[in-house]
Design brief:
The structure holds four protein chains of four kinds. Chain C is built from 13 helices and no strands. In chain D, strands 8-9-10-1-11-19-12 form a seven-stranded mixed β-sheet, with helices on both faces. Chain D has a four-stranded antiparallel β-sheet with strand order 4-5-7-6, covered by helices on one side. Chain D is globular and about 70 Å long. Classes of the chains: A mainly alpha, B alpha/beta, C mainly alpha, D alpha+beta. Chains in contact: A-B, A-C, A-D, B-C, C-D.
Chain lengths: ~280, ~525, ~300, ~500
């Protein structure tokens, strides 16, 4: 009877119950549904999302236009479906851009510490002290409105949250013995950072990122309200809601359907985030 | 009549792979005034059994069987709630996490008094002070308003005990109460528990993985494995005449029973020289921590050099300084006549290959995202010693060498046991064919039976590969069996050093003497009892 | 560390931050295309008029020179004048600061009790229907755009029922409460869910903490354990988030301010950015930076009061 | 605990519901346009224009019929050659009690013309000399005969300010304790929010103002303005969104008369850029736009489709003009003739919803004849800078005229030599430029009518810009209010308004 031949025992901290699986699955299903809608927009959408019909403006939902038409006679259903392309893209790009910046800064600051850390964290402090919206508005002002510029603005502003998160994680991970072991084995710093530190800090970042996607979409919608969002006539949900706002009382459908779309997509992101965090919490 | 009677206890945890039985059909009795030991290795169900008595299991656990306390059936939350604290109380393995960090010491102890006895704040506080004094907290009055983080581990455990005993329960469940503590502290806590038992007739169930601890204070013992009780009886009987094969294995694996593995050398040749090494860290409040101070040591080629000391003694810092994970703030480390601190470029790479380290925590020392084979192969190809595929093949040979079946090659740390992880760690360290291997508390997180295997493995490797080994441990018994020479550290300073046999036979300092005396040893404890 | 050196160190830390902020904001704003003079004078002004005013305000000087004189003036306590309104920046800021502060305080008064209530109910019923219900409400609250909700609220509670004014700030404390009710509720509707999620997670995590098991073993009642141990330990992470959110609210309530026509600092800032009113933007940025630092400091001091570990 | 808390909330909520607002009986007017300055020469922005009229009296005023009536000047006389205007001032006082003298008038008029950063010096460009003959007589000498000059004396920025005060305090004179000559004085100014004005006790017009003053509130969001109007938080509101006009009209307490304005919506094209550099290209662009449909889609039928480059509320507007009407086939042919290479053009717009709607419609209609375009939205600051620098292809925008005389209008919109390159389109026609001057100098009404008809015909045919539609003011008024209207020149008739509360 030796340790070697015994079957691998259950690790004392291994998940004994896969918490959060259902949530994550439900969230993933919602996201998948929207992804399918986005990619198949050409197939699912009954009309050209930008086709104007000045005779049938503000038509309530009926057989021809399930979600009605907007103030320019465009089919709301088609615009909602095409809008998925923009909003999903926005959700992902708007997270990945700041994530990339933030993770890089966080890794470098946390791993090397010292003066590098101090300088980078001061930059974080500076960015944090700016009101988020104002900085985004100013950057969008410099670059001009539009989605790509919004994403660039986010990358320049929202990275701080990731940087702080990653730095905190790195400070923990770099003390772990496998990082010490890698150093003792004489691996170079880039190798240790990329191969040993980064993969092990991504978990909690991912969870935050999914929730952040919701914030990105919402902030995008608010920018649309302030007139700095997607360029017309792009079908983007936030802009659709902002556009439909003057008609909210006589033509509720213009706002409502993109609103529901936004809620369900956000729900997908949040459920995935919740599911993942519960799984991570249990297995941590 | 027994105080507690456990009858056919079973505990099952729900999991996504179906129910997992943690405790199966466990029955035992606890007699008033006795100390019952529950011994077993990890996963044996000993802690779950203990927690089941107080209904402290998580929601997903299903408990079967009966627990009778004083003849009453502790079925249902209300019945258990009625005995918690007043009749049965419990202390835990890690005292730091079992105290609310936002509550003062005094409040921790006064809290149950106010609830169960309805004492006023002042009364409870006065009573708490007495209790803290009774668990021998020095200067208890001054510490009433201290916060948990301001106390040492041993003090925290005493607070936990005082708090558990506040309402004068008749039974104390102690779940590995000394495992996280230094040996000298452990000895103190065990002494306290023994005195409580003798003076006030407190009944106790002591859960431990350490037969040495059990042997020191328990009257009876039950041995658990895989959720079942495999043997029960008086400690003396079980130790001297174990019935079950596993019990015999367990007893045989006790450090004191291990064969002598040290092989002192005839003509020592120097390999390492530590000259006046000091490592000081500035603290946030502007002070200075002297982690290591003025250490002079020489390590000989081919020997096994032991470094012992309690937490904070600086022994790990010394190891990390040698591998150059830490740069000393004073003095220098000489390797074959060269100062390690001055190495750079190819010399440094060569040094990295020559000196390798195995770490304490089996799980934390491996990258959780990499398989065993990848982990072992990585240093080989990163150092350009072989192509990636050749390195992977070489990794399999190294797995053979550390007696790890090749079928485990694709497993990640989570799917490996602690012992298996340590084998991967050793294989990784050996991948670069080092001349010096530093083993930093490599067995302290492992079960004793596994510890025995790892020590045997290290001994074999040492012979086969002509390795010099620095073995760092808090466990004097292991060091005594395993090392040729020993250095004792305390508070960052080298207390004494010498050949193992000499040092143990005639320690020259009081501290070393205390250490040796405090180390729990099953056979010695039995001898003292007899 | 005693509290004076603690605060002192914080104030020292703010200096490089302030310099950085002034640099970034100055050059960022200057980079935005659009000529403040043209905006102020309107499209009918002649080129000569535009050039004259640029010279009058020193906007034709090299940008470094402008920055230096800005820094110089700031150090002497002069935040300059608004290009657009020709009134001192400080007056403008002070005019709007109380409103914004009132709104933020109001939002907190509404959000915090709701947050604690919802988080506690959710955490104590983890996985059961009250938890799920609160979660759905939270997600709805987080995803419904404020500007949309604002219009609906204004039309229903303001116009149809006539309970609340749909605009303005009012006169006197009670009137402020009355006027700002809808804006505060609209803001709370996304703030509370955010905090609730955070607090709920912390509560659940703390519920599994070892000291909870120890307290149970001592026979303490669940309710007491929850209040005295779990809740206290869970508040800290949420407190930090709260600090971040308050800082965000001071500048981020723009949308609510516009929808409910209660211009505060946020609307002033957006107006200034759109009008390229450089000196107002500078002044406001400074105010925000100081506010952010002050809030962080307050949260730190508060945390230290709760958690003895942080003050050492 | 939860229950107790709920009670508390309810109680607090009830307390809030019952607390009613209590303000002096000021007329509350909501406008999206901010008052950015109280100095009449400093801004030509819509909000400030609305305000200046209330604070500063001009020499003449426009009465309810649109005719010129005495203002601070009781009498005026124009010399036979039309180059000298002599005005006699009435006995009037500033709000601080100082008499308004000829010196103040001369100072104010020259200030408009000569201050380097005067926002809109155009109305005084023809003024050669201004002299105070005595305390009550002002003699204005023009560079040449100039028919619209009297009308220009009524423009928003020609209000009379106190020479003594402005010279003493400079910019500060328009921030604190502002000395006014009009019906109101400043009670409190909260920039970016609101302006409270109170009756000027020294106002020269007997019995005016007929109210306790007004609160001019900036409300940027149109929905909010409507909500405030509907809930009675405003007595009058500017720019009700077209989509909500019907809803507001349906409210029994509110009226929306849709007053005529001198506002015109047009499409500007940069005539140095293809395809608009060619006449055919511009004509194609004009004929492609179904202005009737656009007007209908944007204003829900409230506006009149435009046929001329001049607003329809101006004197000498030509309603018979019919050129470059909607004709996609002809537009296509013209576009081909222009040699347009299919380059994608950019439609630059500000971020107002209405502008966006126009742009989307333009994009669709132009797309049908083959002009590819993308829309670029910027904030107003960038927009004006780019427009004035000529950095754009095409943009839908609007303008209005301060007087009903077309002189300033043609100088603004189609004149290549009047300083703004025909509203920054770079349109230039020497004949038109000549006619502009001729129209100003001509004093015979019939001849002037012919000159302006010619200007309209030439510029509309050559597409100096594309006229879209003439919108009325979509202002809403509480029925408790009488006498408040907006004149075509963007001035409230506030001093004669009365409110019953």
């Amino acid at each position: 009877m030796t340790d070697v031949v015994s079957p691998a025992p259950v690790h004392p901290a291994a998940p004994r119950f896969r918490h959060g699986t259902i949530e994550a699955a439900l969230g993933a299903a919602l996201l998948l549904a929207w992804l399918i809608a986005a990619f198949g927009a050409g197939v699912f959408a009954p009309y050209d999302p930008n086709a104007l019909d000045l005779v049938a403006m503000l038509t309530p939902p009926d057989a021809a236009h399930w979600f009605g038409t907007d103030h320019l006679g465009r089919d709301v259903l088609s615009r909602v479906i095409y809008g998925a392309r923009i909003d999903i893209w926005m959700g992902f790009a708007g997270v990945i851009a700041p994530l990339a910046v933030g993770v890089t800064v966080g890794l470098i600051a946390g791993y090397f510490g010292g003066l590098t850390d101090t300088i980078l964290m001061r930059i974080v402090d500076i960015t944090v002290a700016f009101p988020f919206f104002i900085l985004v508005i100013a950057i969008v002002g410099v670059l001009g409105p539009g989605l790509v510029n919004y994403i660039i603005a986010l990358a320049l502003v929202a990275w701080v949250a990731y940087a702080r998160l990653v730095r905190a994680e790195v400070l923990v991970v770099k003390r772990l013995e496998y990082v010490q072991a890698a150093r003792a084995l004489g691996f170079s710093d880039p190798v240790i950072i990329l191969r040993h530190v980064l993969p092990n800090v991504l978990g909690s970042i991912t969870i935050y990122a999914w929730t952040d996607a919701v914030m990105v979409i919402l902030a995008g919608a608010s920018l649309g309200f302030l007139g700095l969002g997607a360029q017309p006539p792009t079908a983007e949900w936030g802009v659709m809601i902002a556009d439909g706002q003057p008609y909210v009382l006589q033509a509720w459908w213009i706002c409502l359907f993109p609103g529901i779309a936004m809620v369900t997509l956000s729900l997908g992101f949040i459920l995935v985030s919740d599911g993942l965090s519960r799984r991570l919490r249990v297995s941590a | 009549m027994s105080l507690v009677s456990v009858q056919g206890l079973s505990v099952t945890f729900a999991s996504d792979k179906g129910p997992v039985a943690a405790v199966r059909n466990v029955s035992f009795d606890l007699n008033p005034g006795e100390i019952l030991g529950i011994v077993g290795e990890s996963g044996s169900g000993k802690s779950v059994t203990c927690r089941a008595l107080l209904g402290l299991l998580p929601r997903r656990a299903t408990v079967g069987g009966r627990i009778l306390y004083d003849g009453r059936d502790l079925a249902g939350a209300a019945a258990i709630q009625a005995v918690r604290g007043r009749e049965i109380s419990m202390i835990f393995q890690n005292p730091a996490s079992h105290l609310d960090p936002l509550m003062t010491i005094g409040d921790h102890v006064a809290e149950p008094l106010r609830f169960h006895f309805g004492l006023s704040a002042a009364e409870a506080r006065a009573e708490a002070l007495k209790l803290l004094e009774s668990v021998r907290i020095r200067d208890a009055a001054a510490r009433m308003d201290a916060w948990p983080h301001q106390l040492s581990g041993g003090m925290k455990q005493r607070v936990l005990i005082a708090s558990a005993l506040a309402c004068k329960p008749r039974l104390l469940l102690a779940d590995e109460p000394t495992t996280a503590l230094d040996v000298t502290v452990q000895a103190g806590i065990l002494q306290l528990l023994r005195d409580l038992n003798r003076e006030s007739g407190l009944t106790m169930a002591l859960v431990s993985h350490d037969l040495g601890v059990i042997a020191e204070i328990c009257d009876r013992v039950i041995v658990m494995r895989g959720g079942e009780v495999i043997e029960a009886g008086l400690v003396r009987d079980v130790v001297t005449n174990p019935q079950h094969e596993y019990t015999r294995l367990l007893i045989g694996a006790q450090p004191g029973r291990l064969p002598q593995m040290a092989e002192p050398q005839e003509a020592p040749a120097g390999l390492f020289e530590l000259k006046d090494v000091a490592v000081h860290f500035p603290t946030r409040s502007g002070g200075m921590v002297r982690a290591v101070d003025g250490v002079n040591l020489s390590i000989h080629k081919g020997e096994c050099f032991g470094i012992v000391g309690e937490s904070g003694s600086g022994k790990s810092t010394v190891a990390r300084t040698i591998v150059r994970l830490i740069t000393p703030t004073g003095g220098r480390v000489m390797f074959e006549g060269k100062s390690v601190g001055d190495l750079a470029g190819a010399d440094l790479t060569a040094y990295r290959r020559a000196v390798q380290m195995v770490f304490q925590s089996p799980f934390d020392s491996l990258n959780p995202r990499m398989t065993a084979q990848q982990t072992i192969a990585e240093p080989i190809w990163r150092h350009g010693l072989a192509s990636k595929s050749a390195a992977m093949a070489r990794a399999l040979q190294l797995m053979d060498m550390v007696e790890l079946p090749r079928s485990f090659a694709t497993r990640r740390p989570r799917a490996l046991s602690g012992g298996q992880c340590q084998r991967v760690g050793i294989a990784r360290a050996l991948a670069l064919s080092p001349r010096l291997l530093i083993a930093d508390e490599v067995t302290s997180a492992l079960d004793v039976t596994v510890q025995a295997q790892i020590l045997r493995l290290l001994t074999r490797l040492r012979k086969e590969r002509d390795l010099t080994v620095i073995y760092i441990s808090h466990d004097l018994t292991v060091v005594r069996k395993f090392c040729d020479r020993v250095a004792v550290f305390q508070g960052g300073r080298l207390v004494e050093t010498g050949a193992t046999a000499d040092l143990f036979a005639s320690p020259s300092t009081g501290y070393t003497r205390d250490l040796i005396a405090a180390a729990p040893d099953m056979d010695q404890a039995m001898a003292e009892r007899a | 560390m005693n509290s004076i050196t603690f605060i002192g160190r914080r104030l020292l830390q703010i200096v490089p931050v302030l310099i950085g902020i002034s640099l970034v904001s100055f050059f960022l704003i200057m980079m935005i295309p659009g000529d403040p003079v043209r905006i102020v004078l309107g499209p009918r002004a002649t080129e000569a008029a535009v050039a004259a005013m640029r010279q009058e305000w020193g906007l034709d000087r090299p940008i470094w020179a402008q920055y230096l004189s800005y820094v110089g003036n700031t150090l002497t306590g002069d935040l300059g004048q608004s290009l657009k309104f020709r009134v001192p920046v400080l007056d403008l800021v002070l005019q709007y600061l109380p409103r914004t502060m009132f709104l933020v305080a109001y939002v907190l008064v509404l959000s915090l009790p709701a947050t604690i209530l919802m988080a506690v109910i959710a955490a104590r019923n983890e996985g059961r229907w009250p938890d799920q219900l609160i979660r759905v409400i939270s997600i709805l609250g987080m995803t419904i755009p404020v500007f949309w909700l604002g219009v609906l609220f204004a039309r229903y509670f303001g116009v149809k029922l006539g309970w609340f004014p749909v605009s303005g700030y009012g006169e006197g404390f009670v009137d402020h409460l009355h006027h700002l009710f809808l804006p505060a509720v609209s803001t709370s509707l996304w703030l509370a869910p955010l905090l609730t999620r955070n607090l709920r997670a912390a509560l659940i995590e703390q519920t599994e903490a070892d000291y909870v098991a120890a307290s149970r073993a001592k026979g303490l009642p669940e309710g007491y354990i929850f209040r005295r141990h779990i809740l206290r330990n869970s508040v800290l992470p949420t407190l930090n988030l709260l600090g971040v959110m308050i800082a965000f609210l001071i500048g981020g309530s723009v949308v609510v301010e516009i929808v409910y026509a209660v211009p505060g600092l946020g609307a002033l800032m957006v107006g200034s950015v759109l009008g390229r009113d450089y000196f107002v933007i500078q002044g406001l940025t400074l105010v925000y930076a100081i506010a952010t630092v002050a809030i962080t400091l307050a949260i730190d001091i508060f945390t230290a009061a709760i958690d003895p570990r942080t003050s050492e | 605990m939860a229950l107790r808390f709920a009670h508390l909330l309810t109680a607090a909520a009830m307390a809030l519901v019952c607390a009613g607002p209590a303000m002096a009986d000021k007329i509350r007017i909501g406008s999206p346009y901010p008052t950015t300055t109280l100095d009449p020469i400093r801004s030509a922005n819509a909000g400030s224009i609305e305000t200046f009229g209330q604070l500063y009296s001009r020499l003449l005023r426009v009465d309810e019929t649109g005719a010129l009536a005495p203002g601070l000047a009781e009498k005026w006389d124009v010399s036979a050659d039309g180059t000298v205007v002599t005005l006699t001032l009435r006995d009037a006082k500033f709000s601080n009690g100082d008499p308004i003298t000829a010196d103040d008038v001369v100072f104010s008029l020259l200030r408009v013309r000569d201050t380097p950063d005067s926002a809109y010096p155009a109305p005084m460009q023809m003024l050669d000399k201004a002299e105070a003959v005595d305390a009550h007589t002002v003699k204005l000498t023009l560079k040449s005969a100039f028919a619209p000059f009297l009308g220009n004396l009524e423009v928003f920025n020609i209000g009379i300010v106190s020479k003594k005060d402005v010279e003493a305090r400079g910019d500060k004179a328009f921030v604190e304790n502002v000395v006014t000559s009009g019906p109101y004085m400043v009670e409190k100014w909260v920039p970016n929010d609101r302006l409270l004005i109170a009756p000027n006790p020294n106002y020269w017009r007997e019995g005016y103002p007929k109210n306790d003053g007004a609160e001019l509130i900036e409300v940027a969001d149109s929905n909010t303005r409507v909500s405030m109007m509907l809930s009675g938080e405003l007595d009058a509101a500017r720019e009700i969104p077209w989509s909500q006009v019907a809803e507001v009209q349906a409210n029994e307490n509110i009226e929306m008369p849709l007053e005529p304005s001198t506002v015109i919506y047009i499409v500007l094209m940069n005539q140095t850029r293809a395809p608009f550099d060619k006449l055919e290209g511009r004509q194609a662009a004009a004929m492609a736009l179904d202005t009737a449909a656009m007007s209908n889609a944007v204003t829900f039928g409230a506006a009149t489709p435009a046929n001329s480059t001049l607003p329809n509320a101006l004197k000498f507007y030509d309603p018979t003009l019919k050129v470059n009407g909607f004709d996609p086939a002809a537009a296509k042919a013209a576009l081909e003739a222009s040699g347009y290479d299919g380059r994608e053009i950019t439609i630059l717009i500000t971020d107002e919803p209405e502008r966006e709607k126009q742009a989307v419609l333009m994009q669709a209609l132009w797309g049908q004849i083959g002009i590819k375009s993308k829309i670029e939205k910027t904030d107003a600051g960038t927009f004006w800078t780019r427009l004035t620098e000529g950095d754009y292809d095409a943009t839908p925008t609007w303008w209005y005229n301060e007087t009903t005389d077309p002189d300033l209008a043609v100088r603004w919109s189609v004149c290549g030599t009047c300083g703004n390159k025909s509203y920054y389109t770079n349109y230039e026609n020497a004949e038109v430029d000549r006619l502009v001057e001729a129209g100003a100098a001509e004093r015979d009404e019939t001849k002037r009518a012919q000159i302006y008809a010619d200007i309209q015909r030439i510029t509309t045919t050559e597409v100096a810009d594309i006229p879209l539609y003439y919108p009325p003011f979509a202002n809403a008024y509480s029925k408790k209010l009488t006498g408040l209207r907006m004149t075509p020149a963007l001035q409230w008739t506030l001093e004669g308004a009365e409110i019953t509360k």
